[in-house]
Amino acid sequence: MANTERLKALQMVSTARKAVAEEREKDGLTESQQKLLDDVYSQLEDMEDTLVHEDIQDSIKSLQDAESALAGLVGRMKRSTDTIKELSKTVDTAATAIGALAQIVTTAVSAGLM
Amino acid sequence: MTWIMPPLRTLTLVTGVIGCLLSGPGCAVLTQSQIDEVNRFATATKQYDALPGEPIRQYWGFTKTNKLLELAGSKITSTEDAETSWGKLSKAITQESEFAKQGAEADHTLEVLTKYADGLHALISQDSLDELDKSATAFGTSFDKAVSQYNKVVRQANGQSNLKLVGASVAGGIRAAGGVFIRTKQAAYLRGFIKEAAPIIEANTTATVALMDKMHGYLDIQQRQRLETNFKVLSVREKVLAPETVALFGDTLAKINAADELCNKTKAAAEAYAVAHTKLVSMVDARQDLKSDIEEITVLIDQIKAGLKTKKALEK
Question: What CA–CA distance (Å, rounded) separates B127 from B118?
Fold first, then answer.
């Protein structure tokens, strides 16, 4: 059911439930009248519950759409964070290489190779 | 072997310049106050996802209570009536646990905001710089060790004066250049992601506000009205209500009012979230030190706290 139709139906059911409620609140009803009204009231409530449940589900669907879009972005954020960590590792590797080079130069000099 | 010295003297300067060049125009790093505000925003929003599902859970709880109160007002004159009432009672219980799952679904959709907050934290984390610190320090130490060895083996053996130990300066240069490079990359990613997230956050806020408006209406039209009907019907039929029954009506009405209040607070928190996020977007673009905390984030924190307080009261 489309959302507009559902909301119209819900409004009609709520109005009907309210009208039945007013009858139920009256004093002096016979037992059979009470039962009949209680029954109708209960069925209208069930219909209302079904329509409200579906309507809330529609709103949750809108939230889920936004969630999917943001989840994709969060995934890319994580990959970018990993890239930054890699940059740090690259600096570490370069620093280690320069340190090793200095060591080699020193060793070469002490061995009379330079 | 004095050729080693000029590069050493200039290494700090050169690496600093390289760092800036690598980082693009204007060395566009984030200021510390900007980083602090992004972190403050991220920390504040971590509790936000617990709010929107609660009014839904409460709503279906009230539906059950109203149906049980309705049964209390129904006259049972036969076994068939008793069976019908038992069927209605069972259905009310089953329906509540089934429909209340929507609350968890709503909460689940907003958990991504916590992941987004975690992503912001990680993106501008100090960890990479701490790692760089360690690497640069290790390099400086190893460099000094190599020069000491050279002094001992070559310089001192030839009666020459020792070369200066400049490992600390070199390490400082690497740390400075690498730090600028990392911070610049972080800033660029952060700006890009926050801007990209803006329309999604807006859509999320619109959906949350619409849901809370709906729940506000449903709590009023469905639950408050049903409770009032039940009270009137029961009063007319029973003539005198037991104090416990009256107390139950009073307690349920108070909870409906509190759930309604929670809808308003959640709505306010959602709107504050969107406003604070928009401010964050303009803040990371401004590239300037912030004189004080961003007021919109303070408002957001207050709204979330207020919502959580009401939620806690409802859970009692």
Answer: 14
Query: CB-based burial of residue B124 (10 Å sphere; 0-12 exposed, 13-18 middle, 19+ buried)?
Result: buried
The span from the CA of B111 to the CA of A71, in Å, is 10
d(CA B302, CA B142): 51
Say yes or no to pLDDT of A5 above 60: yes
Other beta carbons within 10 Å of B240:
6
- What dihedral do alpha carbons B115, B118, B119, B124 form, nearest 10°? 170
Half-sphere exposure of B242 (CA within 13 A, CB side): 6
**A–B: how many Cβ contacts below 8 A?**
197
* B153 interface with A at CB cutoff 8 Å: yes
Q: Which residues are CB-neighbours of B311 under 8 A, at least 6 positions away?
A: B50, B51, B54, B262
Three-state secondary-structure class, residue B35: helix
**Do B30 and B283 touch, CB atoms closer than 8 A?**
no
- pLDDT tens readout for residues B71-82: 998 888 899 999
Q: What is the DSSP secondary structure assignment for residue B152, as one 8-state letter? A: I
- Measure CB to CB from residue B232 to each of A25, A65, A92 and give the nearest one: A25
Cβ atoms of A84 and B128 closer than 8 Å: yes
Query: Structure pTM?
Result: 0.79
